């Protein structure tokens, strides 16, 4: 195997390792939020440090591959996609930290009931994240397209959650309840952004495989021929 191929494989492995770390951050932050377990926060914060280091390492690998090998065609698309996916993964880690920090505040107060759509939204986003990483690892553009379609489901759940939370604010005169509700609105926004980053990664997979940019617009969600 050529040295260039070995380095490309090494780059892919580093991205997959980073994706595993980010998925663990998201899962842990969600457990902290849903199960109201503050001990999970330390794990999220420790993992963030590893993710930040990986981001720098992967960026450096990408730049050296371009500078030393002047890749073209699918190799160049793979490296440029890897740089964008690297950035999206790091931001997903940031959102997991935001959720964890917000959960620490929410845990101090009684649980707000009747928010059944948040766990559903969490499950949908975690599936999107898992599938976009799998699509990248296997260069599966059809799976990547399916992730784009799921973003509509997450947006629908987000709207239901926000409607419920706004109604709670309107009906409540208790300042603590209002503050918890506002915190949950921020959590909901962070969960939605996790889905947005999964969508970005899926678009990069489609670009990597087909050489087509489907970022603007992607309303049809079809793979260009």
UniProtKB/TrEMBL annotation:
Homodimer. It is found in: Cytoplasm. It holds the Pfam family PhoU. Plays a role in the regulation of phosphate uptake. This is Phosphate-specific transport system accessory protein PhoU. The keyword Nucleotide-binding does not apply. Coiled coil: none annotated.
């Amino acid at each position: 195997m050529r040295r260039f191929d070995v380095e490309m494989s090494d780059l892919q492995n580093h991205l997959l390792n980073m994706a595993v770390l980010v998925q663990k951050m998201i899962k842990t932050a969600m457990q902290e939020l849903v199960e109201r377990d503050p001990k999970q926060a330390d794990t999220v914060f420790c993992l963030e440090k590893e993710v930040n280091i990986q981001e720098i390492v992967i960026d450096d690998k990408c730049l050296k591959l371009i500078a030393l090998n002047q890749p073209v065609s699918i190799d160049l698309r793979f490296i440029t996609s890897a740089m964008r996916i690297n950035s999206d993964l790091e931001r997903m880690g940031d959102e997991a930290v935001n959720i964890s920090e917000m959960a620490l505040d929410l845990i101090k107060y009684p649980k707000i009931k009747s928010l059944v759509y948040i766990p559903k939204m969490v499950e949908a986003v975690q599936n999107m994240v898992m599938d976009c990483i799998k699509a990248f690892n296997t260069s599966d553009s059809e799976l990547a397209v399916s992730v784009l379609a799921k973003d509509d489901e997450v947006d629908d759940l987000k709207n239901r959650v926000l409607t419920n939370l706004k109604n709670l604010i309107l009906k409540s005169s208790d300042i603590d309840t209002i503050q918890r509700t506002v915190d949950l609105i921020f959590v909901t926004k962070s969960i939605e952004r996790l889905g947005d980053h999964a969508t970005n990664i899926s678009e990069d997979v489609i670009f990597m495989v087909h050489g087509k940019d489907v970022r603007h617009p992607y309303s049809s969600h079809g793979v260009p021929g």
